[in-house]
Structure formats: structure tokens, C-alpha cells
Fold this protein.
Amino acid sequence: RGINKLDPKCKKILRLLRLRQLHNGVFVKLNKATINMIRRVEPYVTYGYPSTATIRKVIYKRGYGKVNNSRIPLVENSIIEKVLGSHGIVCIEDLIHEIATVG
């Protein structure tokens, strides 16, 4: 449907969920606030729990990270280790595990 013909509240919720375009996807940590937001925009979005295989496919195909305010593709483990090494995440598989288990 696009975002043009929505009421202002739904538009704001979609922006807060970082769903600014059609066919976008985000990983969201569930809490009471996000559950209520998803319920409000339920007719316009699809949601559910991703499998580890799905997370792996998405990260390897379209994974990007923000390093020094620039968007960098996650192709090397050295990028991840440099930025997230202090949190114990040193490779792409560690990152996938953290997303899957809501680390």
C-alpha cells in the first residue's frame, strides 16, 4: 500500500520501527511498547520469529554495519571484531548467534 495513504499515527509507528520503504525488514526486540506498536500497524506489516537459518541468509546477503557513521557491508570478520570485539563478538557467526538468541 505504501506509506502515503496511512493515518499519521501509523506513519509515525512505521518510522519508529525503521520501516520507511516497502519490502524493508528489521529485527526488533520485543517489549510491551513494541508489541503495542506492532498491533497498531498489523494490517500493514508481517511479523514473526525468524529461524537461525533465515537470520544467517539475511546477514550474509544484506548485512551492513555502522562504523564511524558510515554504512559498511559485513564481509570481513575484522570489521566486526574491531567494532564489537569488546562485547565478545568477533565474527559473523557470533553476530548471528546474538541476534538469534536475543543476546
The chain has five helices and two strands. The longest helix spans residues 52-62.
